[in-house]
Amino acid sequence: MTHAAIDQALAGAYQRFTESNPTSRHQFEEQARYMPGANSRSVLFYAPFPLTIAKGEGAALWDADGHRYADFIAEYTAGVYGHTAPEIREAVTEAMQSGINLTGHNLLEGRLARLICERFPQIEQLRFTNSGTEANLMALTAALHFTGRRKIVVFAGGYHGGVLGFGAKPLPTTVPFDFLVLPYNDAQTAREQIERHGAEIAAVLVEPMQGASGCIPGSLDFLQALRESATRVGALLVFDEVMTSRLAPHGLANKLGIRSDLTTLGKYIGGGMSFGAFGGRADVMALFDPRTGSLAHSGTFNNNVLTMAAGYAGLTKLFTPEAAGALAERGEAMRARLNALCVKEGVAMQFTGLGSLMNAHFVGGEVRSVDDLAPVDGHLRQLLFFHLLSEGIYTSPRGFVVLSLPLADADIDRYVAAIGSFIGEYRALLPGAR
Prior knowledge:
It is a single chain. This protein is of the alpha/beta class. Helix content is 39%, strand content 16%. The protein has 13 helices and 16 strands. The chain has helices spanning 3-20, 22-31, 86-96, 109-119, 132-147, 187-196, 220-233, 252-256, 282-285, 305-318, 321-345, 378-390, 409-426; strands spanning 53-57, 60-63, 68-71, 125-129, 151-155, 178-182, 201-206, 209-210, 216-217, 236-240, 262-266, 276-280, 350-354, 357-361, 393-394, 400-402. The strands form four sheets. A seven-stranded mixed sheet has the order 4-12-11-10-7-5-6, with helices on both faces. The protein has a four-stranded mixed sheet with strand order 1-2-3-15. A three-stranded antiparallel sheet has the order 13-14-16, with helices on one face. The longest helix has 25 residues, at 321-345. The protein is globular.
């Protein structure tokens, strides 16, 4: 394997992509006049230009040039219902008939709040926001005021929204809180550092599985160590379940048997609309009670009727606890097939993750942290992405794979076959090839 050979193969993929998508290219060039890089959401950009998606139906997408794709990214986990679920559409239409911006408490927010609290037992009370990013910001703010401390423990590779991202240190766009960045899945270091800084620590913020960094599951001993250490020093344990709440009937933390003090939610729970929520212990959430609490929390669209209606319909009619468990099982079976294929073909390629979320990596051995992914050539990820597009599969340039309810078994078979054809075509470029 040589970098020059990979670059040459990628240049060919770029050329074929450009020739096949003239309308998307035109759209990109026109929009770049008014938006930097024609973009308002960094994760959606890739070179030479991103596809313009014109339509979605079920688990299928069509781009502006008329190509059809099986959707294996599902709005980065928010699109669990697919694109045209009638139950969601009907709920939104009905809600709109009574007015959109009602400027008050409404009839819909309370029933969604109750449903979420009943589904995720660690959440005794909650408040709605517009995104997972806002939910994490508000959860941290609650922890700072509840404890009277300033330091927040986070983990390398963690992503908690557009202004809460971490490598070995906070990313440039991260809000300037007092962060202590520790290695993920290192229970001993976490215990030692939390003990050392205990009197300063307000919160320990962690994803039970790191999503944006490559679907890296947190080990049970690591997450238990965080629970025990946070309790010992009087800090709040905050689980970011914006992605992972979909991985088991009642969330991943519940499946693992670990109870956080605060939990943040987002993505799919809003039924495909803008959504976020933070909640947990009633004594912490009491800070936000306008009758007695000390913290104000506003947001024009926090309780908007479209999200409240879509979220309730989705969780009661489509993504029930039973459906969540079944989708997770489908994902486990798919990932097992993919990893067996990689082993059979003798390439250093694997799919990490849990349940209905997974990520392709060009590396052998166990993946426990972002450090284990350092040897991966990012151009191989891009090559895989463009190969999958050529096979009619829409996914993520970083190799992220997300299952949605309307995906058929034939779609999954198609994805597995596409990985097989990728290995066959580019075997000489892949690490560990024999």
